[in-house]
């Protein structure tokens, strides 16, 4: 976990394996409230600048 942009309330969290709502529950245990959570990657797929509601086709290996 790393504080980004010198803001007290914005963090970058890297998780390699987890269960549903694990980040929310972890931060709640530390008395933080999650307002917005943004996934940037899932397995080897990076979302980059993919707009909400759009899709991207990945080739099969």
Which whole number gives the mean pLDDT? 78
The gyration radius over C-alpha positions equals: 14 Å
Distance between the termini: 32 Å
Low-pLDDT segments: none
Q: How many beta-strand elements?
A: 4
Main sheet specs: 2 strands, antiparallel
Provide the structure class. alpha+beta
Binned, the helix content reads 10-25%
Count of structural domains: 1
- The shape, in one word, is elongated
* Count of alpha/pi helices: 1
Explained architecture:
The protein is of the alpha+beta class. The chain has one domain (2-46). Helix content is 13%, strand content 13%. The protein is built from one helix and four strands. A two-stranded antiparallel sheet has the order 1-2. The chain has a two-stranded antiparallel ribbon with strand order 3-4. A hairpin with a 7-residue loop joins strand 1 (2-3) and strand 2 (11-12). The radius of gyration is 14 Å and the shape is elongated. The N and C termini lie far apart (32 Å). The mean pLDDT is 78.
Which terms would index this structure?
single chain, 61 residues, alpha+beta, two-stranded antiparallel sheet, 13% helix
Task: Walk me through the topology.
Blueprint: E1 2-3, E2 11-12, H1 22-29, E3 41-42, E4 45-46
Antiparallel strand pairs: 1-2, 3-4
């Amino acid at each position: 976990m790393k504080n980004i942009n010198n803001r007290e309330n914005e963090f970058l969290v890297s998780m390699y394996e987890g269960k549903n709502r694990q980040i929310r529950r972890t931060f709640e245990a530390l008395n933080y409230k999650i307002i917005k959570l943004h996934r940037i990657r899932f397995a080897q797929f990076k979302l980059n600048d993919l707009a909400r509601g759009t899709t991207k086709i990945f080739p099969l290996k």
